Amino acid sequence: MITVYLDIESLSAEIDSKNKVVCIGLLVEQPLSSKDKLIILKEWEEKEDKIIHKFFNCLNELIQEHKIVELVGFNILRFDIPLLELKGLQYDIKNPFEVFRECYTIDIRQVLLPLNQFRFKGLNLLSAFKIVEDMFGVAITKPEYSNYDIPELYYKKDYDAIIRHLEGDLRSVRDLYRTLREHLRTLLMCQAED
Q1: Which of 3.40.50.880, 2.60.120.320, 3.30.70.100, 3.30.420.10 is the CATH number of 2-193?
Q2: Alpha-carbon dihedral sign for residues 176, 179, 181, 183
C-alpha cells in the first residue's frame, strides 16, 4: 500500500469544463524512505490537456506498481476528483472514473464532519487546522496563500507562488492526516476500553 496526497489548483471553484486546471500536485509517501516524492504538473509549461493526461498516467502507474493506493486530500470528493474526471472526459481519457475507483479515497473534510457538528459550512482547511490544534494540541503549518489567490497569481505569472501554495497545501494535508490517524486511533482505543 502507498499513500498519495492530491491537490489541484484551478482558476475558479466551479466544476466546469471552462475552469482551467493550472497545477496538479501529488505527494507520494515513500515507504522505505523518510523523504516523500513530490510530483507537480504545471499547465503553464505543458498546457492543460498534457497535465491531465500525465496525471492519469501517473496515478495508473502507482496503482499498477503498488496495487493499493490510498488517495488523501481535503475536499477532494467534492472538488478535485470531480473536476479531474470532467477534464479527463474533455481530453479523451478512457474512462477517467475507473482510476479513482481503484483507489481508497480519504477526504479529510468529510472525516472532520463529526468534529464540526456534521456541517460542511465553515469547514475549510484553516478551520481543520484549528480543530486539530484545539483537540490534540498539534499545530500544523499553514500554506502561505489561499486557493482564492490562485487566479490573481496565475494572471500575474507568479508561478513560484502557486507552486509554494500547492506544496504547502500538500504538506499540511499530509501532516493533518498523520495527526488525525495517530490521535483518533488512540482516542477510539481509549473509548473502547471504557
Answers
A1: 3.30.420.10
A2: negative
Write out pLDDT tens, residues 6-62.
999 999 999 999 999 999 999 999 777 778 999 999 999 999 999 999 999 999 999
Of 32, 2, 131, 31, nearest in space to 74 by CA: 131
For residue 100, which phi and psi values (nearest 5 degrees)?
-75, -30
Alpha-carbon distance values, 42 to 6, 50, 163, 190 (Å): 14, 9, 9, 45
pTM above 0.90, yes or no: yes
- CA torsion through residues 145, 23, 159, 167, sign: positive
Domain ranges of the chain: 2-193
- Asked if residue 170 lies in contact with residue 25, where contact means CB atoms within 8 angstroms, the answer is yes
pLDDT in tens, 104-126: 999 999 999 988 889 999 999 99
3-class secondary structure, 160: helix
pLDDT of residue 30: 79
